[in-house]
Amino acid sequence: YSLSGEGCTRCSPGKFSSEVGSSGCNDCPEGKKAVVASFQCTDCETGKFSGAAEGSCRTCASGEITNDEKSNCVKCQAGKKGSDVVGLECVDCGLGEYSDNEASTSCQFCRAGRYAAILGSTECTHCEPGKFQSQAHERTCENCMPGEKSTDSKDSCAKCAGGSYSDEGSASCTLCPAGRKSDMGSPACLDCAAGSYSDEPGQASCKLCSVENNVWSDAGATECTLCLSGR
């Protein structure tokens, strides 16, 4: 209350008087509130804020929290989201998640072919060459198997074509050298069998030497040779 010509007058909301016989009411500072006829101001509740001389506190918008003084709201940074209790705290996005905007109310899942290995990510990372991730919301990528290579989307691996091969975790396939061959999806090349050959790299099959022309080859040959006299 405060003294006036007609007696005591109640302090209005947002104001207080803590002394007996006071001639006026004082404004509550920012971050505090006071109802009618208050002798002191009280702090705003967690997640709420107020300006000076306000009778009640306001709730922050979703994706925001109060500043330390509870005088205003600040946006949650990218990589975080607002907590379930509005205005309480900003929470890091989990592994396999991200948020790329301020004041986010939720985090997005990394899509297949990408991952987020740390908390509070602002973006997802593409799987490295030779790796893939077929699922969304993941924290790591996996190596492509031998006989495979990674695709541009990194959400799967593709089998090596016939005439080529790859080791585990390969970004591309390597052509088999002349004299060797491979089937689709092979982890290694095989020598052409005796009596056959391949004269170019990248062959899925070997050519047969012509018996009629009296030619032959050993295993792994790049050409056929004429049989010696008597053979």
Overview of the structural elements:
This protein is mainly β. The chain is built from no helices and 28 strands. Strand 11 (80-82) and strand 12 form a beta hairpin. The chain is rod-shaped. The model has no long low-confidence stretch (mean pLDDT 92).
Label the structural class.
mainly beta
Neighbour order of strands in the largest sheet:
1-2
The overall strand count is: 28
Radius of gyration: 38 Å
Q: What is the number of helices?
A: 0
The span between the termini is 126 Å
Low-confidence runs of at least 5 consecutive residues: none
The helix content is under 10%
Mean pLDDT across all amino acids: 92
Bulk shape:
rod-shaped
| Topology as a string of helices (H) and strands (E) | EEEEEEEEEEEEEEEEEEEEEEEEEEEE
Provide a brief overview of the structure:
The chain is an all-beta fold.
Topology:
Layout: E1 2-4, E2 7-9, E3 15-16, E4 26-27, E5 32-33, E6 42-43, E7 48-49, E8 58-59, E9 64-66, E10 73-75, E11 80-82, E12 90-92, E13 97-98, E14 108-109, E15 114-115, E16 125-126, E17 131-132, E18 142-143, E19 148-150, E20 157-159, E21 164-165, E22 174-175, E23 180-181, E24 190-191, E25 196-197, E26 207-208, E27 215-216, E28 225-226
Antiparallel strand pairs: 1-2, 3-4, 5-6, 7-8, 9-10, 11-12, 13-14, 15-16, 17-18, 19-20, 21-22, 23-24, 25-26, 27-28
Protein name: Tyrosine-protein kinase ephrin type A/B receptor-like domain-containing protein
Domain Tyrosine-protein kinase ephrin type A/B receptor-like: 113-154
Organism: Florenciella parvula
